[in-house]
């Protein structure tokens, strides 16, 4: 508990704010799909994985802060359910359940989700967002700008309530203390996309947890500082990896690479939660 309070104080010191007592925070891992990768070099601009395949997960997360709820990333679209898995496509998406069905298991209604935080605009992180149109969307400003400009590789379709539908969008330019007490912080880590963010969650019992977004997709790439060829900026990607790793070491965080099954398994299996 003392370490968590110290981390909260550190996070808030960067914003020149006092460190109040942490609220009761709870974290659930949600099953938001998977991806069969049949050409792992899709994630290496140095062709480090020739001839290799890997099954990735597409996790997302529910955070309860007191009586408020934040949904972090929204996985693959529901339309993927029932589609066959390809053994030849470079990447083949997989989905067997929905976020709403999982929320129902723990008694959370869609309208209780006050905030939807998106690590970045790719389809496997935005797929079910539109099911929560009453929520405020938290998204990196540079990603929001890219979506508004219709940049290649972007689509506002999964985010219609906020891009064209009038729902509330908060474009996050730097780090953001989501609830104002340092317990949940969006971290500005560009490179994968221009406005990519990760999430730092401070839990009283488990301690700090870092949710990576797509800073790295699997352990080998994380350990080797690998960069996918589709990242928007290589130098920013490497700088963000460096910051993330230093932060993780300094606060002794549990690192969760959101596409790495072994990392996601560090959190209790749903419907259990971490606190």
Describe the structure in brief.
By secondary structure, the chain is an alpha/beta fold. The chain is 22% helix and 26% strand.
Which terms would index this structure?
single chain, 275 residues, 7 helices, 26% strand, globular, disordered N terminus
Describe the structure.
- There is one protein chain.
- By secondary structure, the protein is α/β, with parallel strands linked by helices.
- The chain has helices spanning 2-14, 99-105, 123-126, 141-149, 219-224, 234-251, 261-264; strands spanning 25-37, 54-65, 68-72, 91-94, 113-118, 136-140, 169-172, 176-177, 184-188, 197-203, 207-211, 254-256.
- Strands 4-1-2-3-5-6-7 form a 7-stranded mixed sheet. A 5-stranded mixed sheet has the order 8-9-10-11-12, with helices on one face.
- The protein is globular and about 50 Å long.
Structural class: alpha/beta
Strand content: 25-35%
Please state the overall shape, judged from the principal axes of the Cα atoms. Answer: globular
Give the rounded overall mean pLDDT.
Answer: 94
| Proportion of residues in helical segments | 10-25%
Reported for the largest beta sheet, the result is: 7 strands, mixed
Order of helices and strands: HEEEEHEHEHEEEEEHHEH
The count of strands amounts to: 12
Low-confidence stretches: 1-6, 12-16
End-to-end CA span:
11 Å
For the biggest β-sheet, the strand order reads 4-1-2-3-5-6-7
């Amino acid at each position: 508990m003392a370490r968590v309070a110290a981390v909260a104080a550190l996070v808030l010191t960067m914003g020149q704010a006092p460190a109040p007592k942490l609220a009761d925070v709870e974290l659930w891992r949600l099953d938001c799909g998977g991806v069969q990768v049949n050409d792992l070099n899709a994630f290496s601009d140095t062709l480090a994985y020739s001839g290799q395949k890997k099954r990735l997960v597409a996790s997302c997360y529910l955070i309860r802060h007191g009586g408020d709820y934040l949904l972090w990333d929204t996985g693959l679209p529901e339309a993927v359910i029932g589609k066959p898995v390809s053994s030849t496509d470079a990447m083949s998406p997989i989905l067997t359940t929905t976020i709403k069905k999982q929320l129902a298991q723990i008694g959370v209604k869609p309208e209780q989700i006050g905030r939807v935080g998106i690590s970045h605009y790719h389809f496997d992180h935005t797929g079910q967002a539109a099911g929560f149109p009453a929520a405020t969307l938290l998204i990196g400003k540079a990603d929001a700008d890219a979506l508004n400009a219709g940049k290649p590789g972007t689509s506002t379709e999964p985010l219609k309530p906020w891009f064209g539908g009038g729902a509330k969008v908060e474009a996050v330019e730097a780090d953001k203390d989501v609830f104002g007490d340092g317990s949940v912080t969006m971290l500005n880590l560009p490179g994968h996309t221009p406005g990519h963010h990760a999430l730092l969650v401070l839990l009283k019992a488990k301690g700090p947890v870092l949710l990576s977004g797509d800073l790295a997709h699997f352990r080998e790439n994380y350990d080797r500082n690998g960069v996918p060829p589709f990242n928007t900026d290589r130098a920013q990607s490497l700088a963000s990896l460096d910051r993330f790793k230093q932060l993780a070491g300094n606060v002794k965080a549990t690192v969760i690479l959101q596409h790495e099954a072994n990392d996601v398994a560090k959190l209790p299996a749903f419907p259990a939660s971490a606190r």
